Every structure is written in structure tokens, then in C-alpha cells.
Amino acid sequence: MQDKDMLINVDFIKNGNKLYEFSQGLINLENDINDLESTIESQDKNNIFVRKLMQEHDKKADIYNQAIEIYKYLKYERYKETLAMIKKLEQLTKDDLQKMQVPLDLYNKVLDALKENVDLLKPKLKDRIRYKFM
Fold first, then answer.
1. Helix and strand counts by DSSP (H, E) for the chain
2. This prediction's pTM
3. Contacts with 105 (C-beta within 8 Å, 6 or more apart), sequence order
4. What confidence tens digit (pLDDT) does each residue in 35-82 have?
5. Within a 13 Å sphere around the CA of 29, how many CA atoms are in the beta-carbon half?
6. HSE, side-chain direction, 13 A CA sphere, residue 90
7. What per-residue confidence (pLDDT) applies to 94?
8. What are phi and psi of 122, to 5 degrees?
9. Which long-range contacts (CB under 8 A, 24 or more apart) does 60-63 make?
10. What sign results for the dihedral spanned by CA atoms 26, 30, 31, 32?
11. Are 78 and 122 in contact (CB under 8 A)?
12. What's the chain's average pLDDT?
């Protein structure tokens, strides 16, 4: 079966998986930062090893802040992709679905899931405006 004959194409799914993996990396980095903070809190700040930990913390915090911005942008791109996919699916007729051998109830479930997903991905207005001009 060719990609155009599928209800949802493979690239759409792969991009969603990449966004999920990126978010998991952010969670791991945030946990590392929190661990460093809790270790540093209970130590003497004049100790050379603690100062190195503080430097490591600052580096990871900078990386985290940059990664958050990248994640927000990727999430916005995924939002646009999902909107386009919904529009594409809503244009399909019952005849198109029959040609593709897609049951109507599956089609409706997929469309509902995408609409829920787009609501979760929808960025704040200020971010949508900002990314639109990037």
C-alpha cells in the first residue's frame, strides 16, 4: 500500500515520535538539573567540587532553556502538521474511504483523536505569532 493510500502517512507518525523522544530528553535533563540543585543546596559553596557542580548546573540549565525553546517550536510545527492532516481527512468522502478500505468508525476515531491532539499541541497566542514570523 502506498503512502497516499493511507489514512495517516508514516512521516506524520515519525514526526510525532520524534517530538515525544525530544520531550523525554527534556524531562531527563530537568531531573539531572534538579538532582544537581539538591546536591548543591546541602553543601559548602566554597568547596571546589561544589563550585564545579554549580558550573555544571549552570551549563545544563542553559542547555535546558535553549532546548525548551526548540521544543516549543517543534510543538508548533507539529500543531500545524496536525491541523493540515485534519483538513486533509475532513475533505475525504465516503467513496474515498471505501476505495481506501477504511471503516467509517475508524475514520471518525482517528479524526477525533487528531482533534484532541491539536488542542493539546495548540501554543499560546504569543507563541503562534512569534513562530509565524520565523
1. 5, 0
2. 0.72
3. none
4. 999 988 888 888 888 889 999 999 999 999 999 988 888 888 889 999
5. 19
6. 9
7. 87
8. -60, 120
9. 60/29, 60/32, 60/33, 60/36, 61/33, 63/29
10. positive
11. no
12. 85
Taking each helix axis from N to C end, the angle separating 48-90 and 10-41, rounded to the nearest 10 degrees, works out to 160
- When pLDDT is cut at 50, 70 and 90, the band that residue 1 belongs to is very low
Q: Percent of the chain at pLDDT above 90? A: 30
Burial 87-115 (b: 16+ CB within 10 A, else e): eebeeeeeeebeeeebeeeebeebbeebe
Closest CA to 65 of 32, 40, 106, 29: 29
